[in-house]
Write a structure and sequence with these properties.
Blueprint: E1 2-4, E2 12-15, E3 18-20, E4 31-33, H1 35-38, E5 41-44, E6 47-49, E7 57-59, E8 62-64, H2 67-73, E9 87-89, E10 94-97, E11 157-159, E12 170-172
Length: 191
């Protein structure tokens, strides 16, 4: 839950966050901003999502069922996303992004205080199959705490594939590809 309360006269910026399913059973919100803080709020490039019907956002005593409703009624969240961020397994606390997450390559890296390293110490990775919809440099950083790094697609051929021992073989993985801009650095074969 993102709660912004009592920040009278203090500018508050909220960017590149993900809030999901907060208060499904308690009537709470993914984003709550009290009336004293709403005038100084600037928020964008966030993902707010509820998997069940309910109010996602409450700002200045106004309830918004979805992020789209909030963005349409205010000058906030022009680049916000109201969709499932596709965490690996939120139920067990694994908030890493899965393939296809709308958070991939979509953060604003140009904001003051942006940390290039994610929670695991990983730098932004450009997934070339995903359009870079973020801002700043790099324009391909991911929203949320974790950067998604797609695993390489391994293609291995062994020649000859069978024969009596001892058998000299050639193992070739040169057809393997990495879907992002980080090249495959080395191959390890263990027979």
């Amino acid at each position: 839950v993102v709660n912004i309360i009592g920040l009278v006269g203090r500018a508050t910026t909220l960017l590149n966050n993900i809030a999901v399913d907060n208060g499904l059973t308690s009537g709470e919100f993914d984003l709550f901003v009290d009336p004293n803080s709403s005038a100084s709020l600037s928020d964008d490039y966030n993902i707010f999502w509820k998997s069940a019907p309910g109010t996602t956002i409450k700002v200045n005593l106004v309830w918004y069922p979805t992020l789209a409703d909030y963005a349409a009624a205010t000058s906030q969240e022009a680049h916000g996303i109201g969709a499932d961020p596709l965490f690996v397994d939120a139920g067990t606390g694994d908030l890493h992004l899965s393939a296809g997450s709308p958070a991939i390559d979509a953060a604003d890296a140009g904001v003051p205080g942006f940390s290039a390293e994610d929670h695991d110490g990983r730098m932004p990775v450009d997934l070339v199959s995903v359009p870079d919809t973020g801002a700043g440099t790099p324009s391909y950083a991911d929203r949320g705490a974790y950067e998604y790094d797609a695993p390489p697609a391994v293609v291995l051929s062994v020649s000859p594939s069978a024969g009596p021992p001892p058998l000299a073989v050639i193992a070739d993985a040169s057809g393997s590809v990495d879907p992002d801009t980080t090249p495959i650095a080395f191959y390890t074969f263990d027979f």
